[in-house]
Structures are given as C-alpha cells and as structure tokens.
Design goal:
The protein is α/β, with parallel strands linked by helices. The protein is built from 8 helices and 7 strands.
C-alpha cells in the first residue's frame, strides 16, 4: 500500500497485522466471497501485454500479491515493487526469497507520486487496490506515465463502485477517492492521454489498461 505523499498508514503494528491479513487466505475469505477474485483476469491481461523481458513497476505493491505472480511470468525481466510500508516490503522480500524469485524483484520504498525512478524507464506500470485510497489519483497516474516508456502500458485494478465496495472502503477517510465506476476510470485514462484504453468490470472490481 502507498499514498501520494507522507508516511504510510500501514506501518508498525498495523502494518504487520495487515501484511499477515493480506497473505492469509482464511482471513481474506469473507472479502473474497463478497468481492470475487480478479487475479486471473489481471494475469490474463498482463500475459497479453508482455513478452518476458520487461521492466515492470508495481505501485503500492504491498506484500507482493501481484508482484510475485508477475515475476513468475518474466524470463529476463524484473518487477520493481514500490511501497511506503517497510513492513509490507519486508514481507514481500521474504516471500520472494522463499519462492526463488529474489533476482526478479527489486524493493523500492517511496511515494506513489514521487518514485524517484528515471523518466521513461519502465515497460509496464501497474497498480492494484491503491487508487481508491488516494486523494489525487491524477497525480499518481501522472507519475506512472512519467516513468513509462513511449508505447508502454498502464494497468490499474481497483474496487468498482458498488455498495459492498463502498462499505469496505469507508475506513479510508473522506479525503480518499473511494471505489471507481467504469466511467470514472475511463475518464481518468482519457484525460491522461492514454491510447487503446479499455476498462472492464469484473464483479466488484474494475480493470483498466491503456497505452502511453
């Protein structure tokens, strides 16, 4: 998890507890049953966009739910895992070592709107379940596009604007954006100038891809 700026809320004891929650299938079972699981749809989209040698940035990587799955699909590429939570990143690197993926993973502690990466250095930039927490999604998308190579792809997955998703996201505070409708994510992509944009609903999730 990561924010536009400042310190992550997922630090200390809260960070350790939530890291455990993210990696515990039983703890996540009620949420999965309510929302459905979008992993297969995300991985299908990702497989369509890569060849295996890409540099991928995962914004708000958390404990690596998608970073590690992506790393398994790469041959010579690498996933840079950006997050503000030290606890989440520590958990991620332990999992990468256990799964033999350490060489394909790079940990980067930093802000979503200021990664510090070089301009046009990434082949694909993705973010899962982060944008609903942001007060300024446009600023974070602008940073994602800054580090993305020309003709590179952006992929954003987040809660779709449904009653259940709104209930789950209400703890993030009034300054956060909250879940996205298909139209809202399409508008965000259009205003950012993305080409070949496609936004699809998958149960209580929305998956958007676009080309720089």
């Amino acid at each position: 998890m990561t924010k536009e700026q400042g310190t992550s809320q997922w630090t200390g004891i809260k960070g350790r507890i939530f890291a455990w929650h993210l990696d515990n299938p039983l703890a996540r079972l009620p949420e999965t049953l309510l929302l459905g699981d979008c992993r297969s749809a995300v991985q299908d989209e990702f497989s369509r966009l890569i060849q295996g040698n890409e540099l991928v940035l995962d914004v708000g990587a958390g404990t690596g739910r998608f970073s590690l799955a992506i790393a398994k699909q790469l041959s010579t590429g690498k996933v840079i895992c950006l997050d503000l939570s030290k606890e989440m990143l520590q958990n991620l690197i332990r999992k990468a070592e256990k799964e033999g993926l350490k060489e394909r993973i790079q940990i980067l502690k930093g802000e979503a709107s200021s990664s510090g990466l070089e301009n046009e250095s990434m082949d694909l930039v993705m973010s899962h379940s982060v944008f609903h927490e942001l007060s300024s999604p446009e600023a974070v998308l602008a940073e994602m596009l800054r580090v993305l190579k020309p003709n590179g792809w952006v992929m954003i997955t987040d809660f779709r604007d449904t009653r259940i998703s709104r209930l789950i996201c209400r703890s993030h505070g009034e300054e956060s954006h909250g879940p996205f409708s298909v139209h809202e994510l399409e508008t965000l992509f259009t205003k950012a100038g993305l080409k070949n944009a496609k936004v699809s609903p998958v149960r209580h999730w929305v998956i958007g891809v676009g080309k720089k």
